[in-house]
Design brief:
Blueprint (H helix, E strand, L loop, with lengths): L7 H7 L2 E5 L4 E7 L13 E7 L8 H24 L7 E5 L4 E5 L3 E3 H4 L14 H9 L5 H8 L3 H17 L2 E2 L8 E4 L8 E4 L6 E2 L3 H18 L4 H15 L3 H21 L1
Antiparallel strand pairs: 1-2, 2-3, 3-5, 4-5, 6-8, 7-10, 8-9
Family: Belongs to the protein kinase superfamily. BUD32 family.
Subcellular location: Chromosome, Telomere; Nucleus
EC number: 2.7.11.1
Length: 272
């Protein structure tokens, strides 16, 4: 393909730093050039994370283009809906659905999985923070006192933050679809926005008012805790306590459905 035929978005990818690659997307760190509307304090441009849903050779080109465009647009819509509802998620910086690229705010911080001693990400996982990715390759355990020292919070406070953000997301009728501690970032307190729990990676998110879908979302996170963080029952109880407080009267129905989902999950485990 001639150089002049390459879109500006793909040219940006070529100049960007590739961080990781999953089954569905490649992740890059890029810098958006300042514009006439950019403040002088940000004259060097802004670091952004680019999520590139690359073309799948095994799919028919027309179908592949349609699916890619739909999924990029869907993820952007979910993030925007969260932003409008006050959920802590990365800001949208650019959307090129035709090329399969979503650009979001770069989060200065580390994943909750890393901070709670979950170790390195699974092979092939998408890691949305370069520094965290490098650290997680080298460190397999982080003690809670280290978390306290660097971020000024305890694990209990982080659990409360998770439960609150999860409730805000569900109140906006957004179901994440892939809740794990890898898909949660703790923004560093020294960053301009201060300490925040930020939900990331909305590639499987969708809009739903169904109690069942929200209960399954919670169950997925509960299973992620049990598999990634040993002896995490007490930690997850803190998530549910904060979620209950934020959800108010809606919690009772979700809890009943969550218990049903747990029962179905146990039965599947027994049957294999």
């Amino acid at each position: 393909m001639a150089t002049q035929d390459v879109s500006p978005t793909l040219k940006l990818l070529e100049k960007s730093e590739k961080i990781s690659q999953g089954a569905e997307a490649k992740i890059y760190r890029a810098q958006l050039h300042p514009t006439p509307f950019t403040s002088e304090s940000n004259s060097d441009g802004e670091n952004v994370l680019l999520k590139y849903r690359f073309h799948k050779q095994y799919r028919h080109p027309t179908l592949d283009a349609s699916l890619t465009k739909s999924r990029v647009a869907g993820e952007a819509r979910a993030i925007i809906k969260c932003l409008r509802s006050g959920v802590n998620v990365p800001g949208i910086r650019m959307v090129d659905a035709a090329e399969g690229v979503l650009g979001i705010e770069w989060i200065e911080g580390k994943s909750v999985r890393f901070l709670l001693g979950g170790g390195a990400e699974d092979e092939g996982d998408i890691v949305e923070d370069a520094d965290a990715a490098k650290d997680e390759d080298e460190v397999t355990e982080v003690k809670e006192e280290d978390l306290l020292k660097e971020y000024g919070v305890s694990a209990d406070v982080v659990m409360e933050m998770i439960g609150t953000e999860l409730a805000k997301m569900h109140q906006a009728d957004i179901v994440h679809g892939d809740l794990t501690t890898s898909n949660m970032m703790l923004r560093h307190p020294a960053s301009p926005k201060g300490l925040q729990l930020v939900l990331i990676d909305f590639g499987l998110a969708y809009i739903s008012t169904l109690i069942e879908d929200k209960a399954v979302d919670i169950y997925v996170l509960e299973r992620a805790f049990s598999s990634t963080h040993p002896a995490s029952e007490g930690l997850f109880a803190g998530v549910l306590k904060a979620y209950e407080k934020k959800m108010g009267k809606d919690w009772a129905a979700i809890l009943r459905r969550l218990e049903d989902v747990r029962l179905r999950g146990r039965k599947r485990s027994m049957v294999g």
